[in-house]
Design a protein that fits this description.
It is a single chain. The chain has helices at about 5-25, 30-55, 65-80, 85-105, 110-115, 125-135, 145-160, 180-205, 205-210, 215-225, 225-235. The chain has about 240 residues and is an all-alpha fold. It has one domain (about 5-160, about 180-235). Helix 4 crosses helix 6 (about 125-135), helix 7 (about 145-160) packs antiparallel against helix 8 and helix 8 (about 180-205) runs parallel beside helix 11. The longest helix is centred in the last third of the chain and has 25 residues, at about 180-205.
Length: about 240
Amino acid sequence: MPAFSTRIDGVVKEDFNEVWKDYGPGRLADPNKQRELLRSAHKLAICFSFFAKAMKIRELHRRIFVQELASDSLHLVHALMTGDARGASFYLRSVIENFWRHQYFSQHSVEFGWLQTRSKYHMTMAGLREYCSWLDVFSGMLNHSLKNLDRLYAQLSTDVHSTSPRTLVLREQLDQISLSLEQSKRLGPPLRDVLKDCLVLLTISEREVFDALHIDVQVFILKCLDSKRKAARQHDL
């Protein structure tokens, strides 16, 4: 029988082909050249889905922001498929925000409760980012990935809020909405970096969850990472 990890690869590939068929490439300027970007986003979204499902039995404050992160990654695929570049930047930025929220609120159940009972209570992104920088679990080689999220967050915030003529969309009709080659090329590097950095950091900060996954699911997730991130992860174990 084939290895389970091979079957996972096949199922994920089949799922992407179904998504591609259902949505169609009609909102993509050049589907053949843009398909790989969407395939990568879809595959990495599946990785976060494995984490979110594995954490369902946890207390709410220790799982909800990973679940929302996984949801963001799925919405990211949807935004790309429907040609919404700014929406894709928004969801990509939200992945980072929910990664930071998870690191803080998973360890602060009282403050998590305040989110629901105190209307004026909130943690700023700057505060959450700083908290993550203090965590010993990210003090090794993977600290580079953590710092990279800071840079990417600033870049994506500019993309979401910018009024520069270079980033304005200026669509007048619904049928004009499509993902241009220029937009997909601009989105490609931050998309892969954000998703891979958050993923490799989760495998360390939530090592108990990762280690409890089926070994072939672990293999599938690690195969989605590049050699540099895998080496940094191995060093920090």
